[in-house]
Every structure is written in structure tokens, then in C-alpha cells.
């Protein structure tokens, strides 16, 4: 998956140079510029607190090429963006070919609160199928915006799990088509199967492969007649937040994204554990003991290489520009995360855009009603037509 160099026209229109947008379907740019009740609710979250304005920390600027020269223009950024993507795919492993024409089997259909719920089965890896839930609002045939939700398993997001993680259900109630997918198979010691092509010969870091699986889920939604393929976002919490972040950054067709407290950059906090072998520290078994890195329990694999090279996830955030994203920050993503986010804000300014990067903050890791309301308003503003 290489990102082709964008023309300035594509950067300006955010059309992804694929499907023409009809006169009846407002462009993403027009929705961003139009005042709305949902924007009134979230606009404050796109203002960097004065304490963190222009603070960029020790993170290397994404606007600096590998040879040390600087990005000055949108055309420069298109080249630098390709350089970043190439580097990360080479480091994490190249994706298999994206499954652009998925075969979807409907296993079960249920009528719920204003929407139809289909339990479906489709191929999300070249060698593996998964089951998920497709929720379609019962409000006419006009193509609708859609959101992929990702988590440990697909039931939680449809309202059959821990409270305040029912993103698919709540968005379907708000008029979005949603697709809930999930797996415990990267972290469950009894079912190591989400590795390509197999556990002890994995060619792609597991977290990157989750992004690939979400890209295939995007195509499941895009093929539905009820869905406007130009208006598909992605959201997830915690493990799902990491998953949603990697998917949206690495797959350009996601129009926008919300990441709930994933730990948006490397950190030695126990829950910001990118060093684990099911994220970016893959190594053949036997695996290290789960937990923080110590002298007696060292990390292995790519994670250490990334640290030694001075790379961090803010480089991936920059690949979102100019697509909007919201960090729903909790205990793992407190306000000082504006420091790495300022780098993507700077990239957007080179492209001529503002209000593309937002963050909310709460003290706890778990979502709450206020943080979720911001997520729903975010998707309503950036994906719903006026």
C-alpha cells in the first residue's frame, strides 16, 4: 500500500481522487466550513491550550525530509508524506493486497431501535474470515455516512458489552451506517491467529495488520448501497483506539477518525504498551512476560529499533492531514499530548487548513458520557450532510 503523490487539487478538495462527489452530496470541506450545532459543541476542543501553543517537544518534525531538507509547500509535503509512509511500511512490513471486492455473508438479521442489524461474515485477512455486525438505519435510501468501530470483540460496540463503549449502536441511532469488528486473537494466549501469514513467521507487525483488516472493512461498507463511500470514518477505544489510529493514518480512504485514549505516542506507561509482541514488538515465541520493560524482562523486535532511530507515532498522525481527527484523551492521553499533536497542526497549516486536530480530556481511561458526546458530535459535523 503506497500512497500516490497527491496533486494540489486533491489536497485542496480532500476528494482522494477517486469517486466524484455529486452536487447533492456536500464535500467534506464544505461541511467543515459550515456552522452547525455539532461544531458549536466541539469547536473548543480544536483550540490548543495556551500552555501548549507552539510546544513541539523533542519530536522530530514530520516537515523534515530524511536528507534534512524542509517541507515548504503542499507539493513538498506530498513527497514527504510518501517518504514517511514508505519508511513505516518498510519497518512494519508491507500489507497484503487490500481486498477491494469483499464477499459478505449475512448470518443473522435483527430489527432493533430504528435500525436493522446484520451479523455478517467476511474475509478481513487473505487467509482468515471474521464475523461482525452491520447496523443500517431505517430512514430511507439516501446514501448515508458510515463508521467502522473496532474493539476486542464486535459485540461491545453494538451495546452488548461494557457500558459507554457502544459506539456502533449510538452512531446508528444518529443515522450512521456502522460496522462493528473486533478480535481478541492478537492478545489471547490461546488463539494467536491474527498474524500474517502465521504466528511464528509473521511478515507484518500485528498493529499494522489490524489497520489492514480495517481497510478491508472499509470496503465492506463502501460496497453497500446505503453508504456514501466518501464519508466513512473509524473509531475505537483503548486497544481499539490504537487500532483506529493505525488504520486511519495508514489507509487514506477513512475520511476522519476518533481515537479514544490509545496512548497516541510512545510512553513507558504500562497501558501505552507498544513494545508488546501483539503491537509493535513482535518476535517469534516464546514471548516476553507481559508488562513494562525491565532489565529482567526486556522488549524485543521493531519497537526498540523505532526508539533507537528517534521515530514516534506523531509521524503517522501527520499522514492524516488534512483529514480531521479527534483524540478522546483519558488517563493515557492527558493534555500534554498537544505537544506531539502540534506537529500535525503545523503540517495542516502548510496545506492551508485549520481545525483539523482536536482533543478532549478526562481523568479516567474509561469513556464517559461527555467524552462520547464529543465523539458523536465530531462525526456528525465532519460526515453528516447539512
SSE layout:
Layout: H1 8-13, H2 28-33, H3 37-42, H4 74-92, E1 105-111, E2 115-125, E3 128-137, E4 144-151, H5 167-173, E5 177-182, H6 206-222, E6 227-237, H7 239-250, E7 256-260, H8 302-308, H9 314-318, E8 325-329, H10 338-351, E9 357-361, H11 369-383
Task: Based on the model shown, name its key terms.
386 residues, alpha/beta, Rossmann fold, 9 strands
Description of the molecule:
This protein has 386 residues and is α/β, with parallel strands linked by helices. The chain has a single domain, classed as Rossmann fold, CATH 3.40.50. Helices cover 30% and strands 18% of the residues. It is built from 11 helices and 9 strands. It has a 9-stranded mixed sheet with strand order 1-2-3-5-4-6-7-8-9, with helices on both faces. β1 (105-111) and β2 form a beta hairpin. The longest helix is centred in the first third of the chain and has 19 residues, at 74-92. The protein starts with 7 loop residues before the first helix and ends with a helix. Residues 1-26 have low confidence and may be disordered.
Amino acid at each position: 500500500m503506497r500512497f500516490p503523490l497527491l496533486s494540489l487539487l486533491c489536497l485542496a478538495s480532500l476528494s482522494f481522487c477517486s469517486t466524484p462527489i455529486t452536487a447533492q452530496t456536500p464535500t467534506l470541506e464544505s461541511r467543515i466550513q459550515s456552522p452547525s450545532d455539532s461544531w458549536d459543541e466541539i469547536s473548543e476542543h480544536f483550540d490548543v491550550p495556551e500552555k501548549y501553543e507552539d510546544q513541539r517537544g523533542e519530536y522530530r518534525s514530520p516537515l523534515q525530509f530524511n536528507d534534512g531538507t524542509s517541507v515548504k509547500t503542499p507539493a513538498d509535503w506530498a513527497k514527504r508524506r510518501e517518504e514517511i509512509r514508505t519508511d513505516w511500511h518498510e519497518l512494519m512490513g508491507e500489507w497484503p493486497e487490500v481486498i477491494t471486492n469483499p464477499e459478505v455473508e449475512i448470518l443473522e438479521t435483527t430489527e432493533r431501535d430504528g435500525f436493522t442489524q446484520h451479523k455478517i461474515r467476511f474475509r478481513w485477512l487473505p487467509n482468515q474470515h471474521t464475523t461482525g455486525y452491520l447496523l443500517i438505519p431505517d430512514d430511507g435510501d439516501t446514501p448515508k455516512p458510515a463508521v467502522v468501530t473496532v474493539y476486542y470483540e464486535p459485540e461491545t460496540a453494538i451495546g452488548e458489552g461494557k457500558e459507554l463503549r457502544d459506539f456502533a449502536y449510538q452512531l446508528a441511532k444518529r443515522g450512521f451506517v456502522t460496522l462493528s469488528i473486533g478480535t481478541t486473537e492478537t492478545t489471547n494466549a490461546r488463539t494467536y491467529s491474527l498474524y500474517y501469514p502465521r504466528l511464528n513467521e509473521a511478515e507484518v507487525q500485528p498493529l499494522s495488520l489490524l489497520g489492514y483488516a480495517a481497510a478491508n472493512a472499509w470496503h465492506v461498507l463502501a460496497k453497500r448501497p446505503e453508504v456514501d463511500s466518501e464519508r466513512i470514518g473509524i473509531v475505537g477505544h483503548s486497544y481499539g483506539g490504537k487500532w483506529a489510529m493505525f488504520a486511519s493514518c495508514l489507509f487514506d480512504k477513512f475520511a476522519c477518525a476518533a481515537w479514544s485514549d490509545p496512548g497516541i505516542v510512545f510512553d513507558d506507561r504500562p497501558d501505552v504498551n507498544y513494545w508488546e509482541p501483539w503491537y509493535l514488538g513482535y518476535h517469534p515465541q516464546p514471548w516476553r512476560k507481559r508488562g513494562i520493560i525491565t532489565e529482567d524482562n526486556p522488549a524485543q523486535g521493531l519497537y526498540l529499533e523505532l526508539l533507537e532511530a528517534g521515530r514516534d507515532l506523531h509521524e503517522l498522525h501527520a499522514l492524516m492531514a488534512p483529514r480531521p481527527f479527534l483524540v478522546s484523551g483519558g488517563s493515557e492521553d492527558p493534555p500534554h499530548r498537544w505537544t506531539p499533536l502540534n506537529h500535525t497542526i503545523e503540517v495542516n497549516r502548510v496545506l492551508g487548513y485549520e481545525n483539523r486536530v482536536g482533543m478532549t480530556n478526562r481523568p479516567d481511561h474509561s469513556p464517559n458520557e461527555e467524552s462520547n458526546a464529543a465523539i458523536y458530535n465530531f462525526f456528525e459535523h465532519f460526515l453528516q450532510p447539512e
